[in-house]
Amino acid sequence: MRRFLPLLLLPFVTLRAAEQKPSLVTVRLHAEGKESDGETFGTPITLINPPKKIIIRKVPIINERDFVAFYPFTAADGTLGAYFKLDAGGTNRLESHSTEFRDTLVVALINGRVASAMTMDSKITDGIMTIPSGFLPLEIAQLQTKYPTIGKEKSFGEQKKKAMAALKADQKAAPKPSPSPKAKATPKPQQ
């Protein structure tokens, strides 16, 4: 019987895995790597400000699965930034990284693009991660459908409805792609 119990539970595990939808917005915090890490563990990127080529580790320190809540704000450059409250696992990883690798760079990637680079200059123990800039309004609306605003967790249902309405309005306002013309069939040469 013990041999068959895992087999009986297998359909429930696969159903649970199928329920998890991929995130609309990916937010990753990567540590600065070394050239000795090689292509297996690191990848080169180019920072815009300051213009510099660095290597980041491929495995992120923090990702969007570690978020519990967030708080968006307007950055000085006109884009949007956000504070992210992390779960216990994310808080522990951020604290250990900020302790062990002080005065190194961390790079925030939003949907795969470099959003901001920051120096890890102090130990972070409160579980709040800051990404100072780089979000687009559409990405903030997508985050509002998944995570409550810090301090307003009780009104998350209302926040989610407003964000969904804003996303639907944005989709309706977006230009519709025109159908591509069909290629004309070329007649076969007769032999």
Give a quick precis of the structure.
This protein is of the alpha+beta class. The protein has one domain (21-172): Gyrase A, domain 2. It contains 5 helices and 8 strands.
Descriptive account of the structure:
The chain is α+β, with helices and mostly antiparallel strands and 191 residues long. It has a single domain, classed as Gyrase A, domain 2 (2-Layer Sandwich). Helix content is 30%, strand content 29%. The protein contains five helices and eight strands, in the order αβαββββαβββαα. The strands form three sheets. Strands 1-6-7 form a three-stranded antiparallel β-sheet, with no helix packed on it. A three-stranded antiparallel β-sheet has the order 4-5-8. It has a two-stranded antiparallel ribbon with strand order 2-3. A hairpin with a 4-residue loop joins strand 2 and strand 3. Helix 4 (137-144) crosses helix 5 (156-173). The longest helix has 18 residues, at 156-173. The model is unreliable at 13-18 (pLDDT under 50).
CATH class call: Alpha Beta
CATH architecture assignment name: 2-Layer Sandwich
What percentage of residues falls in helices of 4 or more residues?
25-40%
Q: What number is the mean pLDDT?
A: 84
Question: What characterizes the major β-sheet?
Answer: 3 strands, antiparallel
Low-confidence stretches: 13-18
Portion in strands: 25-35%
| Number of β-strand runs | 8
Rg measurement, Å: 22 Å
Provide the structure class.
alpha+beta
Strand arrangement, largest sheet?
1-6-7
Number of helices: 5
CATH topology: Gyrase A, domain 2
Number of domains: 1
Write the H/E string, N to C.
HEHEEEEHEEEHH
Calculate the terminal CA-CA distance, rounded to whole Å.
70 Å
**Overall outline:** globular
